[in-house]
Amino acid sequence: MLGKLMKYEWKNIWKAGTLMLLGMLVVTVIGCVVLRMPGGVVTGLLDNNDINATQSWFVLSSFVATLILYVIMLLASTWGMLIFLGIRFYRSMYTDEGYLSHTLPVTAN
Predict the structure, then answer these.
(1) Residues with Cβ within 8 Å of residue 20, at least 6 apart in sequence
(2) What does 92-104 look like in DSSP terms, one character per residue?
(3) What gap in Å lies between CA 68 and CA 2, rounded to an integer?
(4) Taking the domains of the chain in order of start, what are their residue ranges?
(5) Dihedral angle computed from the Cα positions of residues 79, 84, 88 and 94, in that order, rounded to the nearest 10 degrees
(6) Which distant-in-sequence residues (6+ apart) come within 8 Å of 55 by Cβ?
(7) What does the pLDDT profile of the chain (109 residues) look like in tens digits?
């Protein structure tokens, strides 16, 4: 019975978690591209190439913007999933779905 409950709970919540993880994947790929771009942080350290000030400013600002976007996505994913699960818990305990679940004639075991 517990396996069935977990199965149906997973069916109800997998979409929200997957969307948030896909968002994080997109931001991670963008961050990898920014780090590997010509004159970027990683390639600049490995190649020891001299780059002009404009290119250096662009690379540094895009790197900082990507880091900020990553932190925002991480916080939004965490809080979004917390709110989603809280709403899901409320619906499964205190609405008609919860009433049905708690009135079923089954034992706790």
Answers:
(1) 76, 77, 80, 81
(2) HHHSHHHHHHHTS
(3) 41
(4) 17-102
(5) 70
(6) 39
(7) 678 878 888 888 899 889 988 988 988 888 888 777 665 555 554 455 555 666 667 777 877 888 898 899 889 989 999 999 999 899 888 888 888 877 877 676 6
Q: Which residues contact 13 (CB under 8 A, 6 or more apart)?
A: 84, 85, 88
What is the end-to-end Cα distance of the chain in Å, rounded? 9
Cβ atoms 49, 7 nearer than 8 A: no
Q: Look at residue 48 and give its three-state secondary structure.
A: coil
- The DSSP call for residue 95 is S
Residue with tokens 């517990």: 2
Q: pTM of whole model > 0.85?
A: no
